[in-house]
Specification:
The structure holds 2 protein chains of 2 kinds. Chain A is α+β, with helices and mostly antiparallel strands. Chain A has 3 domains: 153 residues, Aldehyde Oxidoreductase, domain 4; 340 residues, 2-Layer Sandwich (Aldehyde Oxidoreductase, domain 4); 211 residues, Aldehyde oxidase/xanthine dehydrogenase, molybdopterin binding domain (Aldehyde Oxidoreductase, domain 4, 2-Layer Sandwich), CATH 3.30.365.10. Chain A is 28% helix and 25% strand. The longest helix of chain A has 28 residues. Chain A is globular, with a radius of gyration of 27 Å. The termini of chain A are far apart. Chain B starts with 6 loop residues before the first strand and ends in a 10-residue tail after the last helix. The relative contact order of chain B is 0.12. In chain B, the strands form 4 sheets. Chain B has a 5-stranded antiparallel β-sheet. Chain B has a 4-stranded antiparallel β-sheet with strand order 11-12-13-14. In chain B, strands 1-3-2 form a 3-stranded parallel β-sheet, with helices on one face. Chain B has 3 domains: 46 residues, 2-Layer Sandwich (Uridine Diphospho-n-acetylenolpyruvylglucosamine Reductase, domain 2), CATH 3.30.43; 111 residues, Uridine Diphospho-n-acetylenolpyruvylglucosamine Reductase, domain 3 (2-Layer Sandwich); 103 residues, Enolase-like, domain 1, CATH 3.30.390. The chains are: A alpha+beta, B alpha+beta. At the A-B interface, helix 4 and helix 19 of A face helix 12 of B. The structure holds flavin-adenine dinucleotide. Flavin-adenine dinucleotide binds next to strand 2, helix 2, helix 6, helix 7 and helix 8 of chain B.
Chain lengths: 794, 291
């Protein structure tokens, strides 16, 4: 009798998350839960100023406080050649400032003490004398003639430009614009935000002089990259470094980079020969660790009267803060921005991108995003709506006219990506049907008669997830493949390890389901372990929705290797040749007499107790998976809103999401990812951003100002699905972790813009705070959200 | 959170608490719900030498309405008690409207109305409500008790006229002489956010005429604003479109907002006037309708 795949927790089972057993009982094991004998505590002194020369640092009073073990400044770091460290984007970043501070919150000194209270007291006792310098908080200021030079530490850096980069077909695009009936233009700013995981960053460095081994417990989404980085930065042999990433309280890209706190805690442990714990507070996390977005767009579309897009031209100015430390594939300076417009059939496109330094925290991390794809899709969908309006064509119809057709795959995009599958029109239809499109348009017209402002916004997009194939994707030269190792024990139970690192995605649950699908071993019989570089196979970690496309594929591949060996064992047990054997879920049987069979568990036992001559004992293997292409999920998000003309406040009436992420391993987890992503999309659209005043003070340094939506204001979401399996992934899955964060924001913004249509306003920058909407409504002009924010002094 | 070192005392009687405050000589702080004080300790904006935790003081958690209609709120009555109270829903529309808008449910479980008044945050919701209602607090020090009108309590942002050794015992809303009406509207960016703008209005009507009116404004000045002129414009007749328009205009003038990341001064003024209009227009059927 065939096993019931759903019952054993295989593909398609909405299995409860096994990790939740410990999380909801308060039994998770986060970095801050770990206590080592003799452990000391580190606290960081941060710069109150955004740009200033350090004239002197006096640590005398801090050293004098009882319980203080070590005070470190840039000088201490410099004596070990550690004052600066390399970033993931071939730049350098100060560990502790030596010459200047370049953003508010920059690390200036560290105190290591017996407890965190003492460390904090001692930080306050350090006296730093600063000479303030002019401050830059946006690209315009950075590029202005005579602007102060932020990176005067770098030879040959004569201005504040980080890079100038271009991609696409300039001439072809120019020709498209020359032939256009209408050119639609849009200027906007995707504001700076912060991933803000519930758990901030932290580490415990434990250097053991006796064994020369350095063990670091660390909040990292990519433990193996960190091990390599530590080996290079601290000049320690790689086999003497063990990075352990225990349970993570969220990551969202924030925990990919190497942070000064990690490096400082490592040096402190080496100097003191005791474990040193550093746990960042919320403000430290918000003002100093990897931010996201902060890009300005100038976009243009060449259009034919009948609605056909002929060409797209984009220029972006991105604000990278004081150090270029974007965590992204090294080949692409502005991430995968050029994946924009991938779902539309466009003859020609050209993108120019310029990055600048400013006096703001560094980062440019992929906040729930496959490297700037969030900005790419937001720009695309805002431009698409503006274009439809300019042409006077219905926004749904305009999309349909320009979609890549189902029979047109594989499709080469205007910027050179290869998309391979999708049913874009069908997803849009499902979405329009679910929201009741025609009905809503009638309601909207009716409401308008009473002065009420209703609006509907659509966002459709396909995005490249799962970096990536080794031809194109590497970080500092390390190719972006991933891995899995599977050991099946004698009784048919198993342990699986991968090079990815779950931080809430539920790998412990879903990886076991892939094994169950491939081998028929019940998911409950498979333990999943990640995050320890001494035990896990090498991998690039979890971000950019790459786990299922890459590590998940490796899990399927290693399971197949195990199955291949089990088949030999089965043949031996059944006393027939391998060719006479068939496989069904969990069992091999003799083709000519299906009743004669052995289970995978029986094969596992044989691997340790009854091995045929010439076969290696044991049942374990590993697989490294280099994906042939990225995966291309598609999404259609539609929101309806009502705007209060008296206050500018807007409410979401309905939100419908149609996601096509191919085969769903655990539908419940997929839905959870979409719900969470839509919440973050709503956050970006409505409230969540980090801005700066003219002095470079970070406005958004705590949760009273950096607004994360709660269950109270987050609207409900209605989810739908379409399934187009990925043609090259072993189980047909595509990435899903980020679709909703990426595609969602434009749906909300487009809805509000639709509600106020007809008054000559082309754009309001996110977040659409009530005062911005009100200003647009009453003063009838675009509203920019670019810093500095205007503040009256009292 | 790693505050500076402090001594912690948890007295069992009001007298003991006052003695400790006196002993502290200005370096001691009362700890009530802790929802304002603890964040300040965490950020080290406040580093008192001693905390006098009043949560063990017996008999201060009351919310009651005297026979004559006077409302009394003890120092340990929590925001959540006010939110759930059927008394307020029946007797006091302004307070009933404000209670669910203060902070978020978690903060409301701990925070107190009296603590909110003593904290004197210009963005605190209860101060404008109490000003609109003409309320006062009862403070007790080594020399006995005194009454302080909430309108006179605030000296400036985060500053009150309370002496360092005085404990606020209760807040009092005087009995209405007519039918109580009014409401509270708050513009917030998110649940649990402080007000960008808050407007509290309390009126009393008798025989169709407004006999008492108070308007308090949250978040639009260095202190809670008592919009006396705006309230005055409502007195002596029925609420009409004209008096409402006049009050809205005067309230907007009384506001002293500043431009910041929550919006421009012009915008905030506009919201004041919109809210005054909206509250007053919905007065006859105001029950539970605000916000
Ligand atoms: C996340 C968050 C959101 C919030 N949002 C809002 C909001 O939207 N609107 C709003 O109004 N408030 C808000 N608050 C503040 C909250 O309402 C506080 O509860 C209130 O301001 C203070 O009351 P408490 O009992 O917690 O006082 P505490 O924090 O204990 O004390 C506050 C101050 O008052 C003094 N004090 C307290 N009680 C007495 C007393 N009986 N006698 C003398 N002095 C006393 C203390 O010494 C201290 O200086 C928020 C707080 C948080 C943490």
């Amino acid at each position: 009798m065939q096993l019931d795949e759903i019952k054993i927790g295989g593909l398609g089972a909405s299995r409860r998350r096994v990790e939740d057993n410990r999380f909801i009982r308060g039994k998770g094991n986060y970095v801050d839960d770990i206590v080592l004998p003799g452990m000391l505590h580190m606290e960081i002194l941060r710069s109150p100023l955004a740009h200033a020369r350090i004239k002197s640092i006096d640590t005398t009073k801090a050293w004098a406080i009882p319980g203080v073990r070590l005070v470190m400044t840039g000088e201490t770091m410099a004596s070990r050649n550690l004052a600066w460290m390399p970033t993931l984007s071939y730049d350098t970043q100060a560990v502790l400032a030596t010459d200047k501070v370049r953003f508010q919150g920059q690390e200036v000194a560290c105190v290591i003490a017996d407890d965190p209270y003492i460390a904090k007291d001692a930080c306050e006792a350090i006296v730093v004398e600063y000479e303030p310098l002019p401050v830059i908080v946006n690209p315009q200021q950075a590029l202005a003639p005579g602007a102060p030079l932020i990176r005067d530490d770098k030879e040959n850096q004569l201005d504040n430009v980080v890079f100038d980069w271009a991609v696409g077909d300039k001439d072809g695009t120019d020709r498209a614009f020359a032939a256009a009936d209408v050119v639609s233009k849009l200027e906007l700013h995707y504001p700076r935000s912060h991933p803000s995981p519930l758990e901030s960053c932290g580490s415990i460095a434990d250097f053991d002089r006796a064994t020369s081994k350095l063990t670091v417990y660390m909040t990292t989404q990519a433990p193996h990259i960190i091990r390599a980085a530590v080996a290079l930065v601290a000049e320690l042999p790689e086999h003497m470094i063990r990075i352990i990433s225990p349970d993570l309280g969220g990551g969202f890209g924030n925990k990919v980079p190497v942070y000064p706190g990690y490096v400082a805690s490592i040096l402190a442990s080496i100097l003191l020969e005791r474990p040193v714990k550093w746990i960042e507070d919320k403000t430290g996390n918000l003002i100093s660790t990897g931010f996201a977005r902060d890009i300005y767009l100038h976009g243009e579309m060449a259009l034919r009267k009948d609605g056909k897009i002929l060409g797209v031209r984009m220029h972006t100015d991105s604000d990278h803060g004081a150090f270029f430390s974007d965590a992204q594939p090294s080949k692409f300076k502005i991430g995968l921005m050029h994946s924009t417009f991938a779902c539309y059939d466009i003859p020609a496109a050209h993108l120019t991108a310029r990055g600048v330094y400013t006096n703001k925290a560094p980062g440019g991390v992929a906040y729930r995003c496959s490297f700037r794809v969030t900005e790419a899709m937001f720009f695309q969908e805002r431009m698409v709506q503006a274009a439809a309006d300019d042409l006077g064509i219905d926004q749904a119809e305009f999309r349909r006219i320009n979609f890549v057709r189902d029979d047109d795959f594989p499709h080469r995009t205007a910027f050179g990506f290869l998309t391979d599958s999708g049913q874009y029109g069908k997803c849009l239809d499902v979405g329009l049907e679910a929201i009741g499109y025609q009905d809503f348009l009638r309601q909207k017209a009716e409401a308008a008669k009473q002065g009420r402002l209703l609006g509907i916004g659509i966002s459709t997009m396909t995005e490249p997830l799962g970096a990536g194939n080794s031809r194109e994707y590497d970080i500092l030269g390390i190719k972006m493949f991933d891995s899995a190792e599977l050991r099946v024990h004698m009784t048919g139970k198993a342990i699986l390890r991968t090079g990815a690192k779950s931080q809430g995605q539920g790998h412990e649950t879903t990886w076991a389901q892939i094994v169950a699908h491939e081998l028929g071993i019940p998911a409950d019989d498979v333990t999943v372990e990640e995050g320890d570089t001494d035990t896990a196979p090498f991998g690039m970690g979890t971000y950019a929705s790459r786990s299922t496309p890459v590590a998940g594929a490796a899990v399927a591949m290693v399971s197949r290797k195990i199955r291949a060996k089990a088949r030999k064992l089965a043949a031996h047990l059944l006393e027939v040749s391998e060719e006479d054997i068939e496989w069904e879920l969990g069992r091999f049987y003799v083709r000519s007499s299906p009743d004669r069979g052995v289970t995978i568990q029986e094969c596992a036992m044989a691997a340790y107790s009854n091995v045929p001559d010439g076969l290696e004992p044991g049942l374990e293997n590993n697989a490294y998976y280099d994906p042939p292409n990225l995966t291309w999920p598609f999404a259609c998000y539609i929101a309806t809103v009502e705007v209060d003309p008296g206050t500018g406040v807007w409410d979401v009436l309905n939100m419908v999401a149609v996601d096509d992420c191919g085969v769903r391993i655990n539908p419940m987890i997929v839905e959870g990812q979409i719900m969470g992503g839509l919440t973050e999309a709503y956050a970006m659209a409505s409230m969540q951003f980090i801005t700066f005043d003219a002095e470079g003070n970070c406005v958004g340094s705590n949760f009273m100002d950096y607004l994360l939506p709660t269950a109270w204001e987050t609207p409900g979401f209605e989810l739908h699905e379409v399934v187009t399996p990925c043609p090259h992934h072993p189980i047909g899955a595509k990435g899903i972790g980020e679709c909703a964060t990426v595609g969602g924001p434009a749906a909300f913004v487009n809805a509000v813009m639709d509600a106020i249509k007809g008054i000559g306003v082309r754009n309001i920058d996110m977040p659409l705070l009530p005062d911005r909407v009100y200003e647009a409504l009453t003063e009838r002009h675009d509203v920019s959200g670019a810093p500095p924010v205007k503040m009256d002094d009292r | 959170m790693y505050p500076s070192r402090f001594r912690y005392e948890a007295p069992r009687s009001v007298e003991e608490a006052i003695a400790l405050l006196h002993q502290g000589g200005g370096e001691a702080k009362v700890l009530a719900g802790g929802q304002s004080l603890v964040p300040m300790l965490k950020l080290r904006f406040a580093s008192p030498e001693m905390l006098v935790d009043i949560n063990n003081l017996p008999g201060l958690d009351y919310l009651r309405v005297d026979a004559d209609g006077t409302i009394r709120i003890g120092a340990l009555c929590r925001h959540a008690d006010l939110e759930k109270s059927t008394l307020l829903a029946a007797h006091q529309p302004t307070m009933a409207a404000a209670a669910p808008l203060v902070a978020d449910p978690i903060v409301r479980n701990r925070g107190t109305l009296v603590g909110s008044l003593c904290h004197a945050d210009p963005q605190g919701d209860w101060a404008s409500v109490m000003i609109a209602l003409g309320g006062h607090i009862v403070a007790q020090g080594p020399k006995g008790r005194r009454k302080i009108a909430v309108a006179d309590l605030m000296k400036g942002p985060f500053q009150t006229v309370l002496a360092y050794d005085e404990l606020a015992i209760e807040a009092v809303v005087p009995a209405p002489k007519g039918v109580a009406g009014g409401g509270y509207l708050k513009l917030e960016r998110r649940v649990g956010d402080f007000a960008t703008v808050g407007v509290a209005i309390a009126i009393e009507t008798s025989a169709g005429s407004v006999i008492r009116a108070g308007i308090g404004l949250t978040g639009v000045g260095g202190s809670t604003i008592n919009a006396v002129d705006a309230a005055g414009a409502l007195l002596g007749g029925p609420l009409t479109a004209d008096t409402i328009a006049r009050a809205s205009e005067l309230a907007a003038q009384a506001a002293q907002p500043r431009s910041d990341h929550r919006g421009s001064a012009t915008y905030k003024r506009h919201i004041v006037s919109t809210f005054v209009t909206r509250i007053l227009t919905s007065v006859p059927d105001s029950k539970g309708k605000a916000a």
